[in-house]
Structure formats: structure tokens, C-alpha cells
Amino acid sequence: KVRGGRELPAPERAKVPLEREKGFTAVATADLIDKKDALVIRAEIPGVAKDNIKVKVMEDRVDVSARLERKKEEKEENYYCYERTYGAWQRSFSLPERVKSERAKAKYKDGVLEITLPKIEEEKEKKKELKIE
Q: For the range 100-105, what are the long-range contacts, defined as Cβ-Cβ under 8 Å and sequence gap of 24 or more?
């Protein structure tokens, strides 16, 4: 609510998500890459344990959710700055092409989640020459 020591005007205050006050609101920055036979999503999710990441794949959409947990309560009073936040978030990716959800794979390394989504092959148009009777 405060920017430069002043309270934000009401219209600007309405744009600030309320979740920011409740905890972890960062949403993964991500790339969606079109490979020849697959779509690939690479999302930065630093600090989150692999077991706290969930991925759901449909033909036209991918939902990713994560939970960043605080390891222990710290009771120190000498903080100059405390910016780390904890909590959960979810993000959906609309896909430009249909994918085979049953063949999708995900891996997580060094804070980056990579989801590989094999494309559904479009059926080639079948041509048939008709014999005229």
C-alpha cells in the first residue's frame, strides 16, 4: 500500500492484489516454446521443493501450482530487510495446439520446471479420386 512513504491513491490501491499481504504471490515467469513435435514450458520456481509442485495437463491447457514453505520460525529481531514470502500460487497456461496429456513429462532442476508436451498429430487430409459413373 505504501510507495515512497505515501499511501497509494484508491484507484492504484485497487490494482494491488490483496494476496500480497497474505503471503507468497509470486507467479512463475515462464517460456512457452514450440518445438517440432512438442510444446515445452520452462517456468522458474526457485526455492520450492519438488514435492510441493503439482502439474495437471489437459489437451489444451496446463495448470501448475506450487507451495513454498517456511522451514522454521525465526525469532531474530535484527532484520534490516525481510522480503522472502511463503505460501501457494497457481498458474494456467493456454496451449496454442492440442497435446497428448498422457505422454507429457515434467522435470525440475535448479529452480526451473520443464514440462514437455508432445503434440497431437493433425490428421493429413485424405484424398480420394472418385470414378465417375
A: 100/59, 101/57, 101/58, 101/59, 104/55, 104/57
